[in-house]
């Protein structure tokens, strides 16, 4: 018989021919085993959403009159949690949230998780109660985890409720193909058997959860061996499909049976009765014997009428992606470690004959902020900068290994990195609320009990200590007592507090976490003095003084009325000033109604005659050059005449002294109007029938006036007296 060889198909799996040797009048059927031959099912979000499940446990007891009374036994709010297996996303999977009824949301509650996988697979946010899975889970390795949760006081670590147990179930996805575990199979059937004769039954198994969905619901079909044989889809029983199968015509058949999960629908995984992989076994050797059972007796001496042959089957290699030596990796690194700190090493190898080298890389979508880098040649993972546990306690990344050469196939592995805590955060007050204290508080009374929190992990038996800051260690108002349970009590030392004297006191307190290295901080406690009634019920903490119940005092009423009067006076003055219209200082031409005079010496023209004579030039010739004279304004305020300046008698005839006196008064009075200003007219009109009005030309005209009296007016009028009073003297001479 010839040597039979066949290449591997699908995921590097072999469909091997099994040689059947017919013995006597029987047809032999041989079947092998095979693992999987389909792509991994990308299950589309079949997992249940992790939720905030509620289940209150109550204990009932009947009252005296048949009334059912409920007493809460435990305040946990949850039920079972589920997490999907084989999750490979960049972020940890949110399993669910734990919440206690005693948690009011003020941060004083801390949640603690213990049990299977606590701290390695499952981590809990001690403030919110959120539980995350930090590793890829495989339901086939462990289907569920039993954990215990407890709520404790953050400052004292004292349990607030009894511990409660719950279960995290790993939700199945279709990630395992069916397998025929008992192959290879060999069977015989008599020749000329009727159609439907049972040959044998094959059974495949599926590691997925048979109770969830169709992941383990198998359907059988025949891939090779038709039309001679058939298989029942549900049972895997192989039967003959053709009549009159003659051994002399063909004595052996190779039959391949396939088992497919998901009820045989598209997307299901499959396995066949073929296999044992090039990397597992590279060749097979079979020994085949053939004989002739119907020999003519006369030729028996020439026998024997049989022969043997050896068949060698070689499995050819196919290019496959590299394989990591571990299904996942978990490393630890201390927070604040410098850049370049070694985290750990991953290793993958090419199992093919070529044994190509492997190149490593971290897909950026799994490490968006690029906290880590990897050596592409040896798979060593290092940090790119210091890590902060309080910001992110776990980092879940993926590493890809790609063979150099070949088809550049790659494979990925999950890497979980835990950031180990370092005591690098000082403690601080658990709450920052003000302390309200009555004015009538008695000395020695506890007005507040303070506690602290720390962002770092508290070691076993580690606690906080409290003390007053050195600058207030000897104050006479308040004292502090460390209770040695991570709390401290604040006492009052004196009486007689008054919020009118001082309404707020600031008390600096030092807190030490006693860690390694020890961290401490100074936090200020604000104490506000309040008014209280006889039962120490706080009435008011405002800083304003009391309002008398009988009404306002007389002084207060007078002050209020005075303020009102002043405000009214200001308003009236403001309105008066706005309404007052001041006279302009400049005389504008448009205010003179005699601005233009139009003369007509003959008839005609009418309104078309625009020749006009501007009388403004006669009125003020300087105005033509752009000069406008100032208009005298009488001052609004009058001041009395300064004392010490004498004034002559009314009947005095000394005009010179009188004028000097008036000039002195005007010069010394800053409020006096400029009534002594002189208007100068440098233009004399011509053609007037009335003649000139100037007194300068009066000396040339005849006049009957006698100006001799000017001689008695003093030196200031001597010039006038010489001009007008000497006429008669010159004539007489």
TrEMBL record:
Keyword field: Calcium, Cell adhesion, Cell junction, Cell membrane, Glycoprotein, Membrane, Metal-binding, Repeat, Transmembrane, Transmembrane helix
Keyword rRNA-binding attached: no
Transmembrane segments: 556-577
Membrane topology qualifier: Single-pass type I membrane protein
SUPFAM superfamilies named among the record's database cross-references: Cadherin-like (SSF49313)
GO molecular function annotation: beta-catenin binding; cadherin binding; calcium ion binding
Protein's cellular compartments: Cell junction, Adherens junction; Cell membrane
GO CC list: adherens junction; catenin complex
GO biological process: adherens junction organization; calcium-dependent cell-cell adhesion via plasma membrane cell adhesion molecules; cell migration; cell morphogenesis; cell-cell adhesion mediated by cadherin; cell-cell junction assembly; homophilic cell adhesion via plasma membrane adhesion molecules; morphogenesis of an epithelium
Composition-biased stretches (Basic residues): 44-61
Renumbered residue ranges of the record's region Disordered: 38-68
InterPro entries tied to this protein: Cadherin (IPR039808), Cadherin-like_dom (IPR002126), Cadherin-like_sf (IPR015919), Cadherin_CS (IPR020894), Cadherin_Y-type_LIR (IPR000233), Catenin-bd_sf (IPR027397)
Domain Cadherin: 100-180, 181-324, 325-429, 429-547
Function comment: Cadherins are calcium-dependent cell adhesion proteins.
This protein's name: Cadherin-11
